[in-house]
Amino acid sequence: MGLRQRSKDVWRGSVPSDAGALVLDLCEELIDGYAQRRGPMPVVVLHAAGQDPEGRHDDGVRELVDLLHRAQKPRWLLCRSVDPPADRGHPPEPSDTPPEGGLRLDDQTYAATTALVKDVSEGVWENHNRSQYRPYRMPRSRLMAALDQVLDEMPESDRAPDPRAAVTRLTRRHWQPATRPEPDGFWRQLGTMLSPATVLGAAVVAALGVLAAKVDAWPLAAAVLAVLSVPAVGCLIRRRLPPLWLGSGCRWFATTTFPLMPGTTAPVWSLWHPRQSRATLEDRAVDVIRQMLTAVGSGDTGDGGDTGCGTSARESARQFCLQLRTLALLEDLRENHRPAWDLRHRKRTVPPLLLIPRATRANGALPFVRAISDVRSRRSEQDPLLVVAGVAHGDLAGLRERTLLPLPSPDAYRREPARLYEAWVARSLRTGQAPSLNAALPWILPVSLTGPLLRTNDANAPFNERSTYRVRRSPWLLWSRWTLAATCVFATTGAGVYYESLKDRYCIAPETVWNRDLVRTVDDQCVGVVTGRPLLEGSDPPLLDAGLGRRVGLKELQAAIKAENEALDEDRKHITLVFAGALTTKEHEPGDAVDVLRQLAGVYVAQHLVNNPEETNSDLQLRILIANGGPGMADQKTMATKIVEYARWDPSVVGVVGMGIHTPDSADAVRQLQQAGLAVIGTTNSATGLASTYRNYFGMAPTDQEEASLLVNSLGTAGKRTAVVLAPAEGEGPGSSSYGNDQAKYGTLALRAADFTLRRRVDYEVTGTSADMHEAAQRICGEQIDIVYLAGRASHVSNLMRVLRDHTGCEKHPVTVLAGDDMEKKSFEDEDITFPDGGRLRYTSLTYDKHLRTTDLHRRAAAAFAYPLFEGRRLNDTRDAIDDGGFLALSHDAAMAFHTAAAEAGVPGNGRAPAVLAVLHTIEFTGKVGNISFRNADASNPELRGHGIGLHEVTRTPGDSTLRDVTLCGRAAGDSTALRKLSCPPVSPDQEQSSSSPAGSP
Fold first, then answer.
1. Closest Cα partner for 451 from 52, 63, 27?
2. Coil, strand or helix at 743
3. Are strands 762-767 and 653-658 parallel, antiparallel or unpaired?
4. Which tens digits make up the pLDDT trace of 439-483?
5. In angstroms, rounded to a whole number, what is the distance separating the alpha carbons of residues 446 and 421?
6. Is the pTM of this model over 0.90?
7. Looking at the DSSP assignment, which residues form a beta bridge with residue 682?
8. Which of 5, 60, 433, 943 is the most exposed place for a label (fewest CB within 10 A)?
């Protein structure tokens, strides 16, 4: 019947009569339908329809209740079967049996009823350790038990005990009974598992011991004090702030409207009024104790003794105490089934079942049943308790008033017990509780069993076989403290593993949980956008000399840029630029980041100028972010991905400055930024094809083609001179650099176009910053090569010159070396570099130093670096100047180009990044390296792009080791003069056959 679950049955037996089938079906309907219905639970009273002189029908009713107990107990629902003994030999006193039907409580009946209520509320429910949820907690009933114990412990005297003294005793024991409840299953099992006598407990103790041994004394002491402070604080709170922390029992006792007395004030129960709350609780307890004393007639209560007034007061007190205990019981059960914040109460899908095989007035069951109905009618609140009581036909008078409430006969609903329940709800609860109807007890559902229903059937008949199944389990059954503990363990373990994986993939822990803008590479480098904590410097970070004792390093620049970003005026608009460079280097190669620091310093100088209202009248502020592409920009594709991701989140990002090293991934990186609408102004990147291929790329530096053209054109006519291209043997893949290959390509094209006799290319091995030039020198000197085009890094020049000087065959054959890399970063007059006799070195620079506006630039730099944070560290041995090579000026002009374009485009109001990209192709202004114009930035001929360039020559005076670095020629940025028309002194074949002399000025 009902919602019976189709699983293995837990009880099977024969039903003795049709009444048994009816009762089983009705109870199963009420129990199994509770989860969906959550309706009111009746007090089902089973009784015989007529008087049987031999009492067989009454015994049959009792057997039906026992049958119901046997069928329902194996289902693992919380149930109780109480059969209180009755003193049948003691006849009722005439004074205690009024003519109204014997509804008044005499001493014996009151004592039996009180004992029954206490047994139900304080006893152990069957299946309490196998139920759907933890055993019932009964804080309100325990509070009533504490009141009883306090009264029992009061000293005996002729007068009634003082209620105030009893309350004082109750306060000292914190409003709890003397016997504390045993811990429920979770804490008991947890304590057993963690006992040092078990393997798990011993392992936990050992683990804690090992952990304590690894922790320092102060953290260990702090942890121990923190653990001990929890019970100490709890004890202090309970002692100093009672009774607000004493549980739901005291809160209910102080706030329920049931025990209100005439003339009392409104109850106060608030954390902000502890004294008034304590007074409310104590006053309530005094009133209840006074009623309890009156109910038992203890001593002189002042109620009139045995007079009619005293008897009426005692009867009223007994009814009050009985209903208050019943209310506490029902409220406890209601709270145990009420959905709480942790949602675990949803696991209870069946109501508690209370069975009373024989309810009589003498054993207190009938007054208890009446009290349940009265309390429910008075409170108008639903509780889950389902009561099934068997009542003899002669005791029915104790359940009825003078007017009977007509209920349908159960015979009409034998096959549909649900309709019997619905009829009871419609007739009893909807209108039956109205006082004007003077009805019977509305919460009682009487089931009148006629003789034919109670007639015993054939025990062997197959249709008498019945079975019950386990109660329906809720999906919330998995939600328990064990599940929570396991979830916490797995979640903590999973979070730890996930956090470790984040630390392996991202940088700057613990910010990696929410900030993943920096990716950790295989080489343990942090690549991406720096939006959290700053990048960490190496063990020997490079420092730049900004003059007047100021030291500029990565740490100082990040701090200064962060300070400028935080000082932005909220009332003024701003744009965000991302500086992208190789800010971190490989181990033992810190010098590779010097040029990048200079570029970052130039961007910072521009930011300081733009954001300073005393230096500029612009309302558009500049915010700078830093992006790291790893050593040699080997991971700039990953860096570009992170820049694009950040730009999607922050629409104020309008472009990227830097990206000064060309690698095989440069094209993909620029393509990603182009798809995101972000412009890129390359400061030192000399790649030739990026600007012509990608419209979002603008180059500030001369290209490899321009450098090779100027170098080769400066040699004059080729004559019979031979040339060779010397390039590093670079690997393939994303980690390799295409810079050397690009130089070799355009150097070869320039030498071939100038009709030099070109020999086969020579590759040399590179380890770190050191190059192995011995095999190359052997070919150069052995084949009497005149011109060597070095398509390598500036750091390789010293190795080449040394082996050329030391190798036999070159002492009488001077060699001219053309360096494709920018050499202005090296101070040849200070470097310990040995040149061969008659040898000379020609190289290009990214700017023409004779046209740099150094005075104004130095003034701005001095103002930008005039902060105490640049005065903290000692300079390293290199003493690199911050403005060497024009890097400071290039990056400064690049940042100013973005700012100028954004101002003309009306950013951030109009289009932001795409608008800036469009305006960049049209802007023109005077910068520190010359006239900045990107009108021809994507021209196929690099010479039309307006790059600045300089040509330098390094020679050694014969008989002297001093090197001289002379600027031969060049052009400023924006100059349209063709490179071949620059008046650069050529190197004639006659000069190469004699000792070299210093070149003159252009």
1. 52
2. helix
3. unpaired
4. 568 888 888 888 888 888 765 655 578 888 888 776 766 677 777
5. 11
6. no
7. 658, 699
8. 5
pLDDT at residue 303, as a whole number = 47
Sign, CA dihedral 914-917-922-927, equals: positive
Residues 6+ apart with CB under 8 A from 376: 40, 330, 382, 383, 443
Name 767's Cβ contacts closer than 8 Å, sequence gap at least 6.
none
Would you say 659 and 685 are in contact if contact means Cβ atoms under 8 Å apart?
yes
pLDDT tens-digit series, residues 61-103: 999 999 999 999 988 888 999 988 755 444 444 333 444 445 6
More confidently predicted of 622 and 929: 622
**Residues 76, 477: Cα–Cα separation, whole Å:** 14
Spatial CA neighbour of 895 closest among 600, 684, 531: 600
SS3 995: coil
DSSP state of 445: E
Beta strands 353-356; 79-81: pairing state: parallel
- How far apart, in Å, are the Cα atoms of 741 and each of 746, 850, 921? 9, 31, 30
* Strand positions, DSSP E, 768-847: 770-772, 787-790, 816-819, 840-845
- Give CA–CA dist 496/489, Å, rounded: 10
Residue matched to tokens 């922790």 = 215
pLDDT, the chain, mean: 80
* Amino acid 909: pLDDT: 67
- How far out from the chain centre does Cα 695 lie? 41
Distances 319 to 103, 285, 290, 371, 860 between C-alpha atoms, Å: 10, 17, 14, 8, 94
DSSP state of 577: E
Q: How many residues does the chain have?
A: 1002
φ, ψ (nearest 5 deg) of residue 530: -90, 100
Both tokens assigned to 875: 């300079």
Closest listed residue to residue 429, CA positions, set 386, 385, 373: 373
Q: What is the pLDDT of residues 157-203, one digit of tens each?
A: 767 788 899 999 888 888 888 776 555 555 566 667 667 777 777 77
Rounded to an integer, what distance in angstroms lies between the CA atom of residue 779 and that of residue 180? 99
Structure token digits, residue 436: 């004007």
Output b/e per residue, 937-954; b: 16+ Cβ within 10 A.
bbeeebbebbbbbbbbbb
